[in-house]
Design brief:
It is built from twelve helices and no strands. The protein is mostly helical. The protein has a domain of about 200 residues.
């Protein structure tokens, strides 16, 4: 029972982060299952079965709050499903530990770019009206789906930074569209695992525990992402990407860092992340204050106080000021 409660809480926390930042449900849940001794294929299968429900709930919540671009969902989700099925079939027979550091290095670079861009420059607006092309979305979906199935998570870490870096979508719509399209990926990956493994190593009660926690968190996360300022959201997402992939690289055979080095890097990343988010919050508040001041100045300029002559003329005309247009008829205005 204690294990099921822990899994439910992990599912809740993972979905809260995933639904508001566009990633981390699969990575968090799979890491927990691996820590308790589940083999990689069974862990990924368990998580993807749970994600069928959590992504459906998350997608519905994001749609309800207007966070979804359905064209992007179709163009990235269908290739993603194909890649996920292929990745699930592949993982059923082979591990991808060698490719993991390469992927982490690419994603780390994207994370640094996203964090820097949103922290220093805010939300890119020059390309927001430009559509995302199918020739970009299809290969991205295929690759992200394959990575997601083989790594037990990766749809968000690959798809979210790539779409954010394009500067053609608001962060909330990037996250909402990625989370919604993940439903197709989860279904395809689950079918691939069931075809390759059957039900071996999959505990239905563990799936249910992860699912319950995720479904509870889905609407909360969708509401949060709509109310977090885009600049702050971009900085937060960039930090998650950097932290997640730094951990992967430090633990890989390429680096095999000591515990001292690992925790030193973690502290440095956390400090950088905190500074970036704080700066983005301050810049957002400063921009909001400037916008309110400009709006107030515009209102004062457009609705200046009437002079004494205007008041007198208005009183003499029965409360109407006809001095602005002497040719206007003074009788009752005919209804049109």
């Amino acid at each position: 029972m204690r294990t099921l409660i822990v899994l439910a809480l992990a599912g809740l926390g993972a979905q809260l982060v995933d639904g508001s930042l566009g990633m981390a449900y699969g990575v968090t849940s799979t890491s927990l299952l691996l820590a308790v001794g589940t083999n990689p294929a069974a862990a990924s299968a368990t998580v993807h079965l749970a994600e069928i429900g959590t992504t459906l709930a998350s997608g519905a919540s994001h749609w309800r709050f207007g966070n979804v671009d359905w064209k992007v969902v179709g163009r990235i989700g269908v290739p993603g499903a194909v890649g996920a099925f292929a990745g699930a079939s592949f993982l059923s027979n082979l591990s991808t530990e060698t490719a993991e550091p390469v992927m982490a290095l690419i994603l780390l670079s994207l994370g640094i770019y996203v964090l820097t861009r949103f922290t220093l420059a805010g939300l890119p607006t020059t390309n927001l009206d430009k559509p995302l092309r199918k020739r970009f979305l299809s290969p991205l979906g295929l690759f992200a789906g394959f990575v997601d199935a083989t790594g037990g998570g990766g749809w968000g870490p690959v798809g979210t930074p790539a779409l954010l870096a394009s500067g053609r979508m608001e962060p909330r719509k990037v996250i909402g569209s990625i989370d919604t399209s993940e439903f197709l990926v989860s279904v395809a990956a689950s079918l691939g695992f069931l075809a390759g493994l059957g039900s071996e190593g999959i505990d239905a009660t563990w799936v249910a525990a992860l699912l319950i926690g995720g479904v509870i968190a889905a609407p909360i996360a969708a509401w949060l992402v709509r109310h977090i300022p885009p600049r702050v959201l971009g900085s937060a997402v960039g930090g998650v990407i950097i932290l997640t992939n730094s951990r992967t690289l430090l633990r890989s055979d390429w680096v095999d860092a000591s515990e001292f080095v690992v925790w030193t890097v973690y502290l440095a990343v956390y400090a950088l992340w905190a500074v970036a988010v704080t700066h983005s919050v301050r810049e957002h508040l400063r921009a909001e204050a400037a916008s309110r001041a400009a709006a107030a100045a515009g209102d004062e300029a457009g609705t200046g106080a009437p002079g004494e002559g205007q008041v007198a003329a208005a009183a003499g005309a029965g409360g109407r000021d006809d001095s602005a247009d002497p040719d206007e008829p003074r009788g009752p205005t005919a209804k049109v």
